[in-house]
Amino acid sequence: MVKAQMRVQQMAFMLIAVTLFFVLVGLFVLSTQFSGLRKSAENLREQEAMLLASKISSTPEFSCGSTYGAISTCIDSDKLISGMEYLKDYSDFYGIKNIEIRKVHPESNQTCTRLNYPNCGVFLLFQDGNNSIGDKSSFVSLCRKESRNSKFYNKCEIAKIYVRY
Amino acid sequence: MKRKAQSEIVGFTMIIIIVAVLILVFLGISMNKNKKDIIESYEAEAFVQSMFAYTTTCEERYEGDFVPLRRLISLCKERRSCFDSQLSCDVLEYEIEGILNSTWKVGNEWPAKGYFLNLTLRGEELMSFKKGNITNSNRGSSQTFPDEIDIIFVVYE
Predict the structure, then answer these.
(1) Residue A103 sits in which domain range?
(2) Do A138 and B46 touch (CB under 8 A)?
(3) CA distances from B71 to B22, B68, B95 (A)
(4) Do residues B24 and B41 share a domain?
(5) Touching check for B102 and chain A: CB below 8 Å?
(6) Do A105 and B102 touch (CB under 8 A)?
(7) Which member of A105, B58, B62, B143 lies 3.0 to 4.6 Å from A158 by CB, making a disulfide possible if both were Cys?
């Protein structure tokens, strides 16, 4: 009887030990997999932001075209300020609630209107902030034509485009 | 009999402890990222591209001939001056510092804890900028532009 009890005890200990071992292995595998998942999710989020910014900046209403040379993700601020009023009707076309383009260098918090352009830094489009489920941002070049001594030259600054959807 | 059973249990326990320690060591090594590894970041890439297109205050041949940062890097390599006699390298350093300070706020209260930017031209280091602290978590971009301009930009989080 005592021998049998000993055997049962031994079996119990062995089972506990084996279970603990496999739990530790499982934790190890999960932790390595999850760290990879987090990196992938972060990368995907960034890529999505980049694609959205590229999509918007490549549309004729925003894009620089060949005017400013080969600049990727370039937004023409002269076009933007001219067309801001009619662009409000394009919210459904882009499938987004709000676009904000904010100059980061040189920095300016002044909202752009036809009266203060180009001495301003924030372009607000669509402005439907209701029920927005998320936002994305990416860097863009904000370019315009400037003149000096009757000569025109390209002036490009660094901006960030925020898209809310 | 008792001693045999006890020694068996002790043996089992020792095996479990050794395996657990090994797994913990493995975990520690795998979680500890190599500081030299840069995680590619589209945001950093987009920033570098828009920085290179930035119109600087350096005029090259005449008044109004403002050059983008990309062109200013080449002028700096050739040790040329701007139209107003300022050294192109001085203007380049000033412009890049200004851009980095405006765009990437670093500190404990900001998402970015530090950054590092390194500019090389035809394999030769031209300039580098560093601010804040280096951490294990980073995002960056390593790009090559025409005229053999290489730029590495890393943001530490």
Answers:
(1) 46-164
(2) yes
(3) 55, 6, 13
(4) no
(5) yes
(6) yes
(7) A105
Residue type (1 letter), B93 = E
Pairing between β-strand A122-125 and β-strand B55-59 as defined by DSSP bridges = unpaired
- Whole-angstrom Cα distance, residue A35 to residue B32? 11
The residues near A154 (Cβ < 8 Å, ≥ 6 apart) are A67, A68, A69, A143, A144, A145, A146, B55, B66, B68
Please identify which residue in the block is written with the tokens 């979680």: B31
> What residues of B are in contact with residue A53 (Cβ under 8 Å)?
46
Count the domains in chain A.
1
Number of domains in chain B: 2
How does pLDDT run across B13-38, given as a tens digit for each residue?
787 788 778 877 777 776 665 544 55
Other C-beta atoms lying within 10 Å of the C-beta of residue B132: 18
* Sequence-separated (6 or more) residues with CB below 8 Å from residue B121: B73, B74, B77, B147, B148, B149, B150
CB spacing of B12 vs A138 below 8 angstroms: no
